[in-house]
Amino acid sequence: KLLTSHKSFYRAVSCHTYVAYKSFTMPVPTSCSKSSTMKRYQKLIGSDNISNQIERSTVTESDFRLPMSLDRVETEINPVYASQIMSAVLRDLEQCELLAKDNERKQNAWRSLKVDMLACLTSPTSSYNHIHVYVLWMALVYTIDDIRDKFLESTHYKDKPNLEKIVEDTNEDILCLVDPEADEMPALKYFRPDHAVVKLARRVRTLSFKALSVEAYTEFVGHLDVHLRQGVTLAFPYMMKMKEDTTFPMTVQEFEDLRVKDSAGAMCVHLASGVAYNNRVQSDILEECLQLTALHAAILNDIFSYEKQIHREQDRFNYICGVQEELDLSFDEAVHFAVRRANELVDTHIRLANQIDPDDIVSQRIIDTQRRWLAGHLVWVKSCGRYSSSTSPFKFLRSVQSTMDNSLSPENPAPA
C-alpha cells in the first residue's frame, strides 16, 4: 500500500532518500504516470513564454550538509587568489587565440565564472604554478563543454547527421593532445593543428609538467580519459535523443552512474590535490571518496543550473528532471530529494575519510582537498555568474550578476 503512489514513496523515504530508494523496487503504475509528466514537460518546452514559467524552490543554504564550515573555507583561501591568477589565464587564452584581447564581453564572462576562486578555495596551500594549471584545465573543460553545447544547437544539430562520431573524434583529439608521452604534435581526427582548442590543450600539457609530478599528471589524464570516453561520448547520444523526445531516457541510478563521469568532477577534484592516489596505502578509500565528491559536485551543478538548462537551453539532461519523472515529484520536491542525496554523499565521505591513517600526511591532504570541494562548491556557486539570474529558483542566487547567456567557446567550433 505504501508503494501505490510515487509521492507517498517520496515522503516515506525523505529522511533516508536514495539509500532507501535503491533498496526498494519501484512500482509500475497501472495508468502510466509518466504520460502526465511527459505532457507537463512538452508544455514547458513548447511554450513561447518559458522565461515566465520559472519554478521556485524552498531550498536554502542551510539545507546543505557540509564537512567543514564555509567560514573556514573562505578564510583559508589560497593567497594566490589575490595575485590576479585569472589575468594570467586570460593571457593564455589570448595567446591560444581562444579569446580576443578586445572582446570585453567574453573576458567578463570568463572572469565571472570565478574558476580561479574555486581552485583557490579547494587548494589553499598549492603553489602558483599548480593553481595556474588547475584553472587552465578547468578553462579547457568549460571550452570543450561549450563546444558540445553548440553542436546541439539547431544549426549544427540538423546539419550534422554524424554528430556522435564528431564528438567522439574531438574527445580522442583532446586525449592525444594531452597524452603525457605525446611530445610531438599527434595526428588529429577532427581539429586542425592551428585550432584554438589544440593550442590550449598543448599549452596546458606543457604547464602541467611544471606543476605536477609525472605520476600525478598520468593519473589525472586517466580521469580525463574516463570523463571523455565513458562520460561525454556515452552521454551525448542521450542528449541528442532528448532534443526530440521529452521522456527521460534512464533511471536516476543510471543517470548518477553516467553523470559522475560526464561532469568532469573526478578529474577536477583529483587535480586540486596535485598528487597521485595510486601509490597510497589506502588508495581504494581515497578513490571511493573521490567518486563521492565528484557525484556531489555533479548533483549540485544540476540543482543550480536547472534554470539555465531547462528555461534557456531546453536541455533536460539534468538530475532534477530525472528525479521528477521517475518519482513523479514536483520541482521543489525533486530539489529537496537531490539535496538530501547530496547530504548522504557528504555523510558517507565523512565516514570513509575517518578511516584514513591520521599519520599519512599526503592522504590527509587529499581528503582535506575533497572536503574543501564538498564545502567550497557551495561558496563558489553563490559567487559564480554562470548559475545566477534575477529569476533563479533559489533566492540566494538572485543577487549575483548573471552571465549564463555568454558562450565561452570559440565563435566557430568547427575545424574549418
Structural class: mainly alpha
In percent, how helical is the residue content? 55-70%
String of helices and strands: HHHHHHHHHHHHHHHHHHH
| Alpha carbon gyration radius | 21 Å
Question: What are the SSEs and their pairings?
Answer:
Layout: H1 6-13, H2 17-23, H3 34-45, H4 70-75, H5 85-95, H6 104-113, H7 115-122, H8 128-151, H9 154-159, H10 163-178, H11 196-211, H12 214-241, H13 252-262, H14 265-273, H15 283-304, H16 306-312, H17 319-327, H18 331-353, H19 361-383
Account of the 3D structure:
The protein has 416 residues and is mainly α. Helix content is 62%, strand content 0%. Residues 1-52 and 402-407 have low confidence and may be disordered.
For this entry, give a set of tags.
single chain; 416 residues; mainly alpha; 19 helices; globular; disordered N terminus
Question: In short, what is this structure?
Answer:
The protein is an all-alpha fold and 416 residues long. It is built from 19 helices and no strands. The protein is globular, with a radius of gyration of 21 Å.
